[in-house]
Each structure stands twice: as structure tokens, then as C-alpha cells.
Design brief:
The complex is a heterodimer of chains A (155) and B (765). Chain A has helices spanning 22-28, 77-90, 99-112, 118-124, 136-154, and strands spanning 2-7, 10-15, 47-50, 53-56, 69-71. Chain A is of the alpha+beta class and 155 residues long. In chain A, helix 2 packs across helix 5. Helix content of chain B is 27%, strand content 24%. The chains are: A alpha+beta (155), B alpha+beta (765). The interface between A and B is large, with 51 and 54 residues.
Amino acid sequence: MNISFWLNGAYRQEEIEPGMLLIDFLREKGCFSVKRGCETANCGLCTVLLDERPVLSCSVLAARIDGKKVVTLEGMQREAQEFGSFLANEGAEQCGFCNPGFIMNVFAMLRELKEPTEEQIKEYLAGNLCRCSGFVSQTTSILKFLKYKKAQEEA
Amino acid sequence: MKYVNQPVRKTDAMALVTGKPVYTDDLAPKDCLIVKILRSPHANAWVEDIKTGNAEKVAGIACILTYKDVPQKRFTLAGQTAPEMSPDDRLIIDRHVRFVGDVVAIVAGETEEAVDKALKRIKVQYRVEAPVLDMHKAKDNPILVHPEENWKLKIPLGGNNKRNLCAEALEEHGDVDKVLSECKYTVEQTYHTKANQQTMMETFRTACYMDHFGRLVVLSSTQIPFHVRRIVGRALDIPASKVRVIKPRIGGGFGAKQTSVSEIYPAIVTWKTGRPSKMIFSRYESMICSSPRHEMEITVRAGADENGIIKAIDVYTLSNTGAYGEHSSTTVGLSGHKSIGLYRHTEAYRFAFDVVYTNVQAAGAYRGYGATQGIFAVESAVNELAHKMGMDPVRIKELNMPIEGGPLPGYPDVPYAQSCTMDKCMARAKEMMDWDSKYPFRDMGNGKVRGVGVAMAMQGSSIAGVDVGGADIKLNEDGSYTLALGCTDMGTGCDTIMAQIAADCLETPMENIVVFSVDTDISPYDSGSYASSTTYTTGVAVMKACQELRKKICELGAQMIEVDQDKVDFDGSYVFCDGEEEEKRVSLEQIALKGTFFNNIELQVVKQHSSPLSPPPFMVGMAEVEVDTETGTVEVLDYVAAVDCGTPINPNLARVQTEGGIAQGIGMALFEEVQYTEKGKVRNNSLMQYKIPTREDFGNIRVAFESSYEESGPFGAKSIGELVIDTPCPAIAEAIYNATGVRVRELPITPEKVAMGILKKKLEK
């Protein structure tokens, strides 16, 4: 079947198999930041934005992006560097495998919640698993990033 | 020192946080055959007949392999240095399948759909036999997991396949029974720890292709590239020289990837077909046929005199290796060596163990490697002993803990505790937890009770007299350095840590050092990253290599400024001579350039390092839990850790290691258990059913360092990676006891166990 969509800002038309999953499609298109960590929609590694909302690309058919805008971390490199540097400063990136999905969901959170509390952060990101960090340094990174953003806005 | 003991960013950090394609499946050739495995539905069976004809007819199928197609020399998948302790008990495909999930056939094809279709078309006739699933009944059971005649133990460790025994041993010092009988207070209890999955986010995966010399290139997510090279060679019955292993970035390991879980399958496909292939383990496969922690049942007897001085400890461990023996005879050793050693006044001890085969998936290395299990048992027993005496468990530990210069009973790998700040760790943890005001419990008045618990831990730093670290440093034409390593950064940050060490040794900015790891054709030999060895062992290899390179830089520099080598010095930028008449100097860049023409002094040094010692890092962990006395639900509100890992080379990375290890330990204590049905099938085979902690499952984790200085380590460093998973199980069990009076001796401590314990106590009243 034929679908047309925006991938990281670029309009594209592609021929796909109807049963193809979005995660496989995106990786096939070179979006290697999208990772698979499970088959049961539990780990959050494959999170991408579909019309600005976070979705698990392992649980969305590629056919569903027809007429929609898909954004992966490849399309948010500047933002990834900016927020990612806060992760890096805490040593929170660790093995890195969960980072792209986690960071995409952080971006989604920041669009939804203006000034999330620590509790809200943990709740919003509960579906993003990480086995290396114990999460503490991830939370610290987000809180420091929020502070930096606020200072930037106020300046 | 400019970089060591500084929280510098990881050198690969920005690539990771921007999602760059740096992992195995991102780098695999695009035209790879997809490799999948037909797995046994039975826990113990023989393949009587297997028909692959219909499967081969599926369009796009390139290769189907059965037991008839593989070499018949047995090998082990354990990544261990010689002398290899794990028995040779595997074939790539064995006619005898020994657990639900064991390999029956390997299928490779152009697409996943074709392979899935072919898998369904293979017809297998099994002769099903009764399995041995209960580890208590395994030893001397008439049903044998490994009845074959060519089962081989390279090192005699009491193993006997005709008794379902992978290993057995007894170590004794003094007369334990006599000393225990003289103790005023004694305890005897049995503790049961379950199998846990490492659950690294990147599952097992390997891609293979042939190079232009007809050699097999294995691109794999592994902690042990050099061992994989040997293992693949043996499995395929080809010389290891035909195999080249490349390790890209790894998405976590925690010991799982110290076993060659995925490599041999695409390796044999590529070797037979000549075509690139890859095998990506699903999470399901990573749950049912990987290398989880050994289930252990540990019986502890401990005794103390009237003053609380612990005089004797007796530990017996029954360990379940599952269907194959990877890491079995070695993990079990740590359950005694790393637990008894925590009590310095011990006059007599005994440590005995049996490791048995059963028909469940094979166990392997998981962070802590047996110490985690042993420390849960011994720390719990000592806490129970303290309560029997009416003593605060902190106090009994203060009286008996390891001290610098003091003995570590039963721990053979250092003559005494050469570097140890356990006393400071305890004091710091007490202060952070505000122990004295919180011990033993606080009733919150709403059906919830808060309790606190404590545990100590020690681990090793490398395998003494065995592990080898390698470093290869060269000065490049432009004055930059390349540091080639054989250790494997699996997220731990060792590439960065080695660059920090090298930068300080060479007095150069870290940006001036390119780190390369790992390619077995290029990297210096290194045992790999496991056994808490990398910083301690490879770190010293890096120091040695840099120090010798400095000498060579001075030698060439001295030639260039025409003075004797012993008159020059090197400050990282210049080789100079402060002569009486005039100052002479030559820059690093000039020397580097001179190294590239008419030169006989090679500006490259390769060094190895092995330590005869394994100095233990130490720590104290304290948990504060809140127990809902109605439901038995346990919440870890706060966890404090005070750690002596020697000098933390990178305090950020050491802290995050600690936080991550404690979170995994909380999972082991409260949630995680690989469960089997009565037929030997894994019940919890997905992340839906096998629960690992999320960010909502615990409160704070707070970490402090109380650093000793370890003379034999790089810049005073010891290890940290494994130690940090050892305290949560005993500390949380103890905190629950203090909150409720319920002692749970079997992990994980589920709400049911706590609630039933509370109920039982009520009924007893």
C-alpha cells in the first residue's frame, strides 16, 4: 500500500506492506535511534512522536502514519544535544540504548507539562525503562535542564 | 592530576544521547540473512527424527541446520580465562535437548517472514523423558542431564556428570563445630535466592560476515571479544585465527554477555553459506534461553560470644546451574569467599558447596556473581544473630567488620585488608540514614510501619592471578595519541576512564587521546570486562604503557636536541633539558613527526597487566522501607550507600554505577524471579511478566564515597561495578523485619510473603 507522511520534516511517499510495524519501517528508513527492547510495549525504547504525541513505534502500524508527521531523534538533533548534555554531565546516559526513546518522551513531556514536579516526571516517564542508571541521575538531569530552561526564558 | 577523580563526561556520551547508529544491529550489513532458532518445547527429550524438507522449500530460505550438521566436539560458552573452569558440555545443536528453549534447528533466510514460515514447517519427533527440575533432587538423581560420555571438565572441581554434579568442594579452617558449640549465641538458617535476568536493554545479538581473506568476522554485543574468538573457533571446529571479533557499543551487559549466548548461531550460518547473517534475540528469547543468575540455597550457621564477637561461620551453598555449566563452579565460590570474609574475628569457618545440573535454562554470570547470593544469606544470618542477642545489627557489624590491616577470613586473594574504610562507610551511612533515630521502626499510625535495615558487602577487583588487562598506546604523526584497548565498555564508561588515566600519565588533554576498542585483530589482548576487573587491571596496563611511552618520547626528543636521555624531561608538551648554559627543548608535535621518517625508535608501547591480588572494595547499604501491614506491600523510601572503591577515577560514573546496582538489587529483593511451570517452561517470559524496577518503584538512592587508597590499583582505585548490587537484598529483608517482625528468607520478598508472615505472627499470639 502507498502512504504519504512527513518524516523529520521531510514529505515522503512510500510503498509498504500493510502489516509492517512503524519501528521496522523507521529503522529501514535509516532512523537507527529507534530501538527495540521488547515485544510487549513495556520498555519505551522505540518512542517517537506522531503528530507531536509520543507513541511506541513497536505498537503502531506504519500504515497509521499516512497523512501524519513522524519525528524521531534524528529529527531533533539540536534539542537532543542540548538536553543530552545535561544527561552526559550526570553520567546518566550509561549504555545509551534506552536514551533515544527516553529523550523523545522527555520532549513530549515538556510539551505537555510546563513545569513538571519530580513526581510528575517519574509518572510521565514510568514507561521508559533503564537497567543501567537506577533513574536517579536521569531525574537530576531533567530537573537541572528545567532550571536552565527557566533561567533562559527569564533572561 | 587533571582528569583522575574528576566527573568528566564520557567520551562517547554525545553520540549516545543523540541516537547515533553505534550498536550491533545498527552496523550489521544490510543484506544479512535472518537467523532464528527452532526451540525445544520439552525440558528433557531426544530428537528421534527431524524433517526439514518442507521448510527448505520456503522461498528465501538459505540454510537449515540440525544436529547432523554441526561439529561433535563439546565446548563451553562461558567467557573465562585459562584455566577454564566451566565444563565442556555443549554442542551447537545437540540431539539431546535439555531445557524448554534448547536448540533443535537453526534456520536462516532472506526475510523474517520466510524464516518464521520455515520454522513452522520443520517436523520433529521427540522421545520425551522426565526432567529434573527441582535442584534439591538433582544430585544423584537417576535422570541425568548430561549422560554423554564426552562431557569434559578441564579442571577437576568435583564435577561428575553421572551424578548431575557440575562441581562440589569443601573448604575448612579450624574446628567449626567445636567453636560454634562454645558460642553463647548461634543461628542456623537457610536462605533461598532465585534466578534473575540481567535484562539489559539491548538483547543478545550478533552479525557475521566473511572478509576478503576468507575469515569469519563476528560483530557482536559482547563483554568478552577475545573469549568469543576462541569459543566460536571451538564451536565451529576451525582455528581461532579464522575468526575476528569486533565489539561496537554495547547496550548493557551486567554479566549476561560474559557468556557467548548469541554468537555461534549466525557464525555457523555464515561459515556454511558464505553469506552475512545476523541473529537478534527477542526479549522472549532473552528471558527463556540466556544466562540468568544462579538460583542458590544457602544454609548459614554463625556463632558469637557474649560480647557479640563472631567466632565461627559455616556456609553450605546448593547452586543450580540449569542445563549447562557456564560459570557454575566459579560463581558458587564467591557465595562463601565474599561473605565469610566480612567478619574478621572468625576463628573457624567452613564453606561447602554442590552445583547441580537441572533441566532449566543454563545460568551464567550476573553482576555480583554468587557474592550477591552469599552476602544475602550471611548478612541476614548475622542480623538475626544480633536480634537474638538484643543488639543493634549496626553494632554487631561495627564489632566484627573488616578493618585496614586486618584479616579477611576465607578470602584467599589478598593476605589482609590492605585498603579498607568499612568503619567510615558504616559511620557515614548511619549519619545519612539518621539510623539511631529510625532504628528499628516507626509506626506511622495509618497501618503503615517504617523500618530500617543494614548490610555490608565486599567484592573483588579482578580475578587474582588470572585476569589480564592490555593497553596499546601510540603517538601519532600530529602529536595525538591512540589508545587501543581490549576491555569492553558496556555503558560503564571504561573507555573514558582509561582515557582519563592515560591523559594524566601523559600530561595531555583527554581530547588528544583517541580510544579504540575492541577488534581482536587490532586490540591488545584483554580478558574482557567482567569480575570487576577493568579499572583495576586494564587501568594499570594503561599506566605502564604510558610510562614507557614517555621514556621513548624522551629518548627520541633527547636525540633531536642532542643531549643525553637522562638529562631530559617531558612535561606533556615538550621534551626539554634545563642545561647550565642554555635551555633546549623540542615539542611533542616535532617528536611525533620525527617518528615518521628516518627513525628507529617506535613511539608505540603495548603493555599487559595482571595482579596477583584482588583487593576487595567495601560498602555499607542501609534501606528505609514502608510496609503496608494490611497488604504486605513494601516501598523502599530511601536507600543510602557508603562505598569504598578506592579512588573513584570518575566520581560521576562511580556514583551512577552505585545507583544502578542498587536499583537492580531492589528488583532482586522485591520483584524479580525467573519462574517455571511444573513442566519446566518459563512463566514470566516478557517484560510484562518479569518486572524490573521502574522509576516509580523506589524513592531516593543516595551515594557517598569513603575512599581508601589501594596501592596495587591505578591511582589508588579498586572496583565498583559488582559490589553495588550486594547490599539491597539483606538490607531490605532486615528493614522489613524491623518494621513487621517478619523474616523473609526467600527472595523475592513479595507482598504475599510479608502479608502471610504478618498473619502468621498474629495467629501465633
